[in-house]
Amino acid sequence: MAATSGEAGRAAPAESFARAAFTHVPSGFRYRVTRSGGGYWMDFEKAADGSRHGRKPLAYFVGSGAVARSYLLSADGFLYEAPLTYYSGSAKWDLAPSYSSYAYPYMTRPIVPGCLNCHASALSAIFGSPPFREGGVACERCHGPGETHIAKMQAGRAQGGSSIINPAKLSPERRDSVCAQCHLSGEVRVMRPGASWDSYRAGDRLADSVAVFVRAGVSPGMRVNSHFEKLAQSACKRVSGDRLWCGSCHDPHSMPGPVDRAAWFRAKCLSCHAADACKETAANRAKRQDDCAGCHMPKSAVTDAEHVVYTDHSIPRRPRAAAQPPPPEGELVPFGGAAAETRDVALAYAIVATRPGAAGRDRALRLLEAAERKSPDDSEVLLYLAEIYRNTGQEDRAIPLYRRAMRLDPAQVTASVGLGAILFERGEDREAIGLWQDAIAKNSGLVLVGTNLAMAQWRTGDLRSAESTLQNVIGLSPGFQPARDLLERLQEARLKK
C-alpha cells in the first residue's frame, strides 16, 4: 500500500521498458514510453502517416506495480489519466482500462479526488497544488488522523490517552469499514447527503459516508476492486460471520515473499480447517506445495480491466468459469443490508443509467422525481434529474433544475455544460459562452465543450477567441479530430475575409 502512488521516475522503476512501444490497431495510433532525465515520457502518433503526433510527460503513477501501474498527466493545474498502463504480469505496456473504445489518444479523462483517494494519503484537491503531499497509502488511512494522536500525547495520557485506531479492536462494522473504504466497489457508490470523498475516517462507519449498492440475487463477476464483496459471498464468511475479516488472513504491515506465500496462507486456512479435510490426493498436494489459496482462491480475470488477474476472495470449492460481467438486471440494494434513503436509491439508479448500454432510465426518472419532491435543495438530485430531462427532449423542465443546482452548488460543472448546450441549440450564444467558459475554468479537459464553445464564439463573430479556444483544446488533446477539423474551417474562413 505504501507504493500505490508517487512521482513517476523518482524511484527505481517497477516497469520494464523492453516492450514499451505498441500500436492500437483499431485507432491506428502508435504509443511509446521512454525514461529520460529522471522522468517518463509518452510519445504518440498516427501510425500510418505520423500525423496527429505529440509528446506528454507522465507526471505521477498510480498502482504499486504488483499487478499494474497507471499514470497521470498534469496540465494547467489539472490531472488527467494517461491512456496507457504498464501490466506487470506480462511485463508490457498497453492501453489503460476502458481506453480501447476511443478512436484517438484520449488525454483528458479527469482524475477526480474520489478515484485518487484510495491510492494516496494526504491528498490535496487544491487547484495547481501537488495532488498528494505523501505518496502511497500511509498510516492514517487505517489508524486515524496523526495530529489528533500527537495533540493527545503532548497533553499527556491523563487527558484521554492515545487516539490511534486499532481496527482489530473496533466493533465488526467499524473494523470492516476500514478495509471496505477502498476494497468494496459494489455496482455503484453514492455519497450520503453532506458527505464528500474525504468524509470517512478510520473508526467511523463507512455507511455514514457512502451507500454502496449491489444487484440483488446476482453474483457479480470478478472486478479489480471487489475483494470485500466477493469475501461476503464465500462459505467461509457466511459460516464464520464477524469472526472472519480481512485481518484474519492479511497483515497490512507486511507481505510474505514468493517462497513463503503458500505456507503463510495455508497456516491461515488451518486455523479454521482441519488438514485432512482436503480431498485432493497426497501426490497432488505435494506437487502444489500444499497451496490452499492456489486451489481455492485462484487468480482470475476481471470484468473491468484487461491483461490482469486478481485473487478470487469468494473462496470457491472448485474453480469457476471465466469471469463474466453481471447481467444489468436485478434490483439495486445496499450492500450488507444497510439502510438507504430515497435519494440514495434514486441516485444509484441514475448513475447506473448513465453508463453505455445501460437500461433503467425510466425507473431512475421516477425515483429522482420523488427524491426531488422530498429534497428540493439536493443539488445532485437536481443535476441527474435535469440530465435525464435534457436527454429525453424535455429541455423546458431541465432548465429550472439546472439553474437551481447552480445556485445551490457554484462549484458544479454539469449544469453549466447542460444548460449551455440547451441555450446554444436555441441560438442564445452569449449566455452559452459564459456557461461553457465557467465549466472549462473548473475542468479544462472538457474538449468537446471547448470545441462547442469555439463554435458559439464563431457564431457571435469572435473568431480570434474561437481560434484561441481550439488551440487550447488541441494542446491538451492533440488527437481530438473534431477540434482540428473546426480549427481548419475557422482558419479558412478568416482567410476569406
**Which regions have little confidence, pLDDT < 50, spanning 5+ residues?**
none
Number of strands: 17
Structural class: alpha+beta
- Main sheet makeup: 6 strands, antiparallel
Distance between the termini: 60 Å
Summarize model confidence as the mean pLDDT: 88
Radius of gyration based on Cα positions: 25 Å
Question: Could you please describe the fold and organization of this structure?
Answer:
- The protein is an alpha+beta fold and 497 residues long.
- Helix content is 37%, strand content 16%.
- It has helices at residues 113-116, 140-143, 146-155, 172-183, 227-233, 235-240, 261-270, 282-287, 292-296, 342-353, 361-374, 379-391, 395-408, 414-425, 429-442, 447-459, 463-476, 481-496; strands at residues 5-7, 21-24, 29-36, 39-46, 54-58, 60-62, 68-75, 78-87, 92-95, 109-110, 121-123, 132-134, 188-191, 210-215, 299-301, 309-311, 332-334.
- Strands 1, 6, 7, 8, 9 and 10 form a six-stranded antiparallel β-sheet that branches. Strands 2-3-4-5 form a four-stranded antiparallel β-sheet, with no helix packed on it. A three-stranded antiparallel β-sheet has the order 13-14-17, with helices on one face.
- Strand 15 (299-301) and strand 16 (309-311) form a beta hairpin.
